[in-house]
Amino acid sequence: MPLPRAATGATGAPGSNSMSRIVITTLNARYIHTAFGLRYLYANLGDLQGGATLLEFSIRQKAAEIVEQLLRLQPEIIGFGVYIWNVAEIGQVVGMLKQVAPQVVVVLGGPEVSYPPDLPDMVGLCDYIITGQGEISFPLLCRQIQAGSRPVEKVIAGETAQLTALASPYPYYDETDIRQRIVYVEASRGCPFKCEFCLSALDLTARPFELQAFLRQMADLYRRGARNFKFIDRTFNLKVDASVAILEFFLDRLGDGLYLHFEVIPDNLPDRLKQIIMQFPPGVLQFEIGVQSFDPVVQQRINRRQDNDKTVANLDWLRTYTHTHIHADLIVGLPGDTLEGFGDSFDKLIVLKPQEIQVGILKRLRGAPINQHTDAYRMRYDPNPPYAILCNRDIDFNQMQRLNRFARFWDLIGNSGRFTATLPLILAGKPFQRFMQLSDALYERAGSTWQIGLKRLFELVYLALTEALGESETASRAALFLDYQRCGEKGSLILGNAGGASVKRGIANRRQLQGLSGYDLT
User: Fold this and answer.
1) Rounded CA separation 108/125 (Å)
2) Entry pTM
3) Rounded to whole angstroms, how far apart are CA atoms 91 and 93?
């Protein structure tokens, strides 16, 4: 039974009890996330499962409290899933754990510890590391430890399992997970592409799960109440037959809050796939589409195969003929990319009007092939996780800082959905250049990109619009008042010399604003 959430802050899979010889655990970035990999480990423990517990914590919890809860189970072995977002916090937990309970065997796994000799310092505290996949190798190691025949080597190469041999993780989403958290699923593992910024570039190919068995598992999750499905497949639309079958499965189950997230190859939307995508109503489909860069030279340098013309055509088609929510990705800091080059990619993407543009700062992933460019392109990364790039040969530190602020303010303004009337004024003409000007002006006045209240943000945007971008006070007030009212914020919004009563004037100027922006503001 799950551990009491309110009392412990941890979540537990079946098997949680007062004593457990094996505990598998991790620290999630947020409560809404679930540890999919740990559920695979738990499902494949075999006869060890009866003496095992799966516990999930949050990176916001104190290390001492986590250690206390782990030791309450009196474990012999604790396995940690280590990722870029929790490596520092798990290091604190393991360090404290080894001080108070050195007899507990600590095993680390996950992408952050899978690429020796490129390992974080915290691995010096553990007893064993399993690289790669652990469904076979972790249970084997546990049996060896319990039998008193511990391996001599600290680093153990994980054995890749046949997908048909794996026990399903889906029964180990409990009722609370299904009701309150994201349910991760995978119809395939791996990726055939070799984009160097991604760890999937190391995969030989993509391996699909047996389709009918997978759909039966999805049917069971749906029957239990799951409605929020996030597919972690790197290339959901790689095999169109499987993609169509999965979408048809969910099309037959529309309604009742169904929400599906897929990562989609941007230049592969054949007609069969388009025909079924068009049948989904608003609010059901989200496609994460990794554009990353439109620069063919940068694409070739990082071994990214992407037909830019097809990508543009497909994004335009999705926005024109479907209700799909598009989350498009661009990466800042790729080797050889420049400030101007990134700006060109941003401008090309803005024209296609995706609902979200994720401006991602390049991270140094251990083992990723992009690391081969470190010297030639003077790629310099923060030594602390998540290892964001600080500068490179073509973008200096000050420019990279500006781009970091650009990304943050874009999330607050461009991606938030709160500035639908104002955004066309900001982006008019030269989107990247103008939003960078706005970002610089916002930072100059606020001194920070964090802890800015919504009302204060509206006030700052007004000042930046009128002073830095030279927009008229009338048009800026009309747009911001309209957006402010839509946000449902209480209290008057005072912009420049305009008092709260100007909210009504902003609504009255709706037609004028539509003429200025060219956008439908209904």
Assistant:
1) 10
2) 0.89
3) 5
Burial zone of 488 (CB within 10 Å; 0-12 exposed, 13-18 middle, 19+ buried) = exposed
Whole-Å CA distances, 325 to 235, 283, 285, 307, 460: 17, 7, 6, 22, 29
- Its sign, for the CA torsion 283, 285, 288, 293, is negative
Nearest to 170 by CA among 14, 61, 396: 14
Where in the chain are all domains bearing CATH 3.40.50.280?
5-161
Closest CA to 203 of 213, 188, 217: 188
How many beta carbons lie within 10 A of that of residue 383, not counting itself?
A: 8
Q: Which residues have C-beta within 8 Å of that of residue 442, sequence separation ≥ 6?
A: 405, 409, 449, 460, 461, 464
The CATH fold assigned to 182-363 is pyruvate-formate lyase- activating enzyme (3.80.30)
Instruction: Specify the domain boundaries for CATH 3.80.30.20 within the chain.
Output: 182-363
Cβ-based burial of 198 (10 A; exposed 0-12, middle 13-18, buried ≥19):
buried
- Residue 256, sorted as left (phi over 0), alpha (psi -120 to 50) or beta, turns out to be left
The pLDDT profile of the chain, 522 residues, written as one tens digit per residue, is 333 232 234 555 555 456 789 999 999 999 999 999 999 999 999 999 999 999 999 999 999 999 999 999 999 999 999 999 999 999 999 999 999 999 999 999 999 999 999 999 999 999 999 999 999 999 999 999 999 999 999 999 999 999 999 999 999 999 999 999 999 999 999 888 888 999 887 877 789 999 999 999 999 999 999 999 999 999 999 899 999 999 999 999 998 899 999 999 999 999 999 999 999 999 999 999 999 999 999 999 999 999 999 999 999 999 999 999 999 999 999 999 999 999 999 999 999 999 999 999 999 999 999 999 999 999 999 999 999 999 999 999 999 999 999 999 999 999 999 999 999 999 999 999 999 999 999 999 999 999 999 999 999 999 999 999 999 999 999 999 999 999 887 778 888 754 443 444 444 444 444 444 443 333
Q: What is the CA radius of gyration of the chain?
A: 25
CATH number for the domain running over 5-161? 3.40.50.280
